[in-house]
Amino acid sequence: MECKIRGWRIEDASDLVEALNNKKIHDNLRDGLPYPYTTSDAKDFIVAMLNADIKTTYAFAITVDDKAVGSIGVFRKDNIHSRTAEMGYYVSELYWGKGIGTSAVKQVCEYIFEYTNIIRIFAEPFAFNGASCHILEKNGFEYEGTLRKNALKNGAVLDMKMYSIIK
User: Fold this and answer.
1) What residues are paired with 122 via a beta bridge?
2) What is the pTM of this model?
3) Which of 6, 12, 40, 167 is deepest in the core (most CB within 10 A)?
4) Per-residue pLDDT tens for 57-113?
């Protein structure tokens, strides 16, 4: 199955609602996304991404046959870390295990390294999220270590793993 990344469109709101009304996805993302996720939430997110600073926020819809099936973003850090960026992503559960996440990460890394001066992209998946760690490893990200007791999610203190790729 082939996927493409592209900019967000307001028409993607219903696809976003479909993907994000899934507790399994929420349990692997940072807090801040409402649950249940509404069309209004989706439109607010899309508008925010469309109006974000194009020098610091690189946000894309992950699509299959032009249907948004996930989201991927790279967010530039500041100050002495201005050439470093953090990546985050998710894929709708219906598309898990089909190579969609792996392909999206590859496409975004290629884009960032070709069109920006960012030289390091990192990601911090929860340590229990083996699928996300595998996606990063398949794309050449190196495991840098475990960030012990680094997050509080759903009332549990969790470890996270640090991965990065260098231009």
Assistant:
1) 86, 164
2) 0.95
3) 12
4) 999 999 999 999 999 999 999 999 999 999 999 999 999 999 999 999 999 999 999
